[in-house]
Amino acid sequence: MTVIVRDLRTDDRRDTEGFALVRRLALPFMLATAESVAHSVTHAHPDAHYRALVAEEDGEVIGTAQTGLAYDSPEPGQGYLNVYVRPDRFGRGAGTLLTRTAEGQLGALGAKRLFAWVLDAPENRAFAERHGYRASRSAHFLRLDLANGALPPRQELPPGVELRTGADFADDLRPLFQLDAETMSDEPSDVGVEFADYDAWLKDTWQAPMFSPELSSVAVVDGRPAAFSLARTDDGTRYGTVMTGTGRAYRGRGLAKLAKNDSLHRARAAGFTEAFTGNDTGNGPMLAINKWFGYEVCASEVRYVRELG
């Protein structure tokens, strides 16, 4: 059979479902639906030049790639490609074809440095290194059994602190956007972020199909959002954390714990049975918080880098 690589067709349900299936099989600890796949393409920021590629064999999607430019970074010329192949379809050349196609597209856009997340497994790391990539930072995927695990009890709120849902801010989302932008800029990363585009945040986060304002929790201090845990859910019983963080002026008071605990309790009450999140291995404070909740590392990945030219 011949493997071909082409752009995802967002109006073809077989394509979007095939793309989501590859992601679920390759990364069972990350949430993906056909609707979220299509949304990412149709609502991407134009400066990101985002493309979703599929590797197809005999009419079946067996591999995917997400590729684009880090348009919100202060350093130009940085691109990314994340390539995944169905584990039961290895050895057909799909990964190499997706990688070379994405590299060519990014090079044509002026990218000088490429970043790719790679599962921390011998065959995956060897693939990246054969294609000229070198290892950089790493991160963990974490899982919590919501159905059978014991969550920490809800804590008494400190004076002046209240908990609200994300839905409570629907009439004025800018305070949440500003808090998210501040915490995101402090996240450990190879690529710096200066996130200032409110409309892009609305499309990428608030309006994303899997995002759940009702299960997202915000700790409010004196009327201002101080910490938050943003949630997403799939079509079944899986819940994930998009971002948990605290504004710089409010750190060290346990507010992120309060917000995330509230969100987890409400997710379990709503019938979700698994919770997933991810942390950079250098993010000690957040790893400690997730360990306190009972999360366990279920997989790891490594950020690989390749210089073009």
Question: Strand pairing plus helix content: what structural class?
Answer: alpha+beta
Percent in strands: 25-35%
From the 3D structure, determine the CATH topology of the largest domain.
Aminopeptidase
- The chain-level mean pLDDT equals 95
Number of strands: 12
What string, H for helix and E for strand, traces the elements in order?
A: EHHEEEHEHEEHHEEEHEHE
Number of domain modules = 2
What does the oligomeric state look like here? single chain
Strand order of the largest sheet: 1-2-3-4-5-12-6-11-10-9-8-7
What's the Cα radius of gyration? 20 Å
Query: Could you name the CATH class of the largest domain?
Result: Alpha Beta
Helical residue percent? 25-40%
N-C termini distance: 34 Å
Residue ranges: pLDDT <50 for 5 or more in a row?
none
Description of the structure:
It is a single chain. The protein is of the alpha+beta class. The chain has 2 domains: 3-111, 3-Layer(aba) Sandwich (Aminopeptidase); 144-299, Gcn5-related N-acetyltransferase (GNAT) (Aminopeptidase, 3-Layer(aba) Sandwich). It contains 8 helices and 12 strands. The protein has helices at 13-26, 34-42, 94-108, 122-130, 174-185, 198-206, 255-269, 284-293, and strands at residues 3-7, 51-57, 60-69, 78-85, 113-119, 134-145, 161-165, 211-221, 224-233, 238-246, 274-280, 296-307. It has a 12-stranded mixed beta sheet with strand order 1-2-3-4-5-12-6-11-10-9-8-7, sandwiched between helices.
Structural key phrases:
single chain, alpha+beta, Aminopeptidase, 30% helix, 309 residues
Concise summary:
This protein has 309 residues and is an alpha+beta fold. The chain is 30% helix and 33% strand. It folds into two domains: 109 residues, Aminopeptidase (3-Layer(aba) Sandwich), CATH 3.40.630.30; 156 residues, 3-Layer(aba) Sandwich (Aminopeptidase), CATH 3.40.630.30.
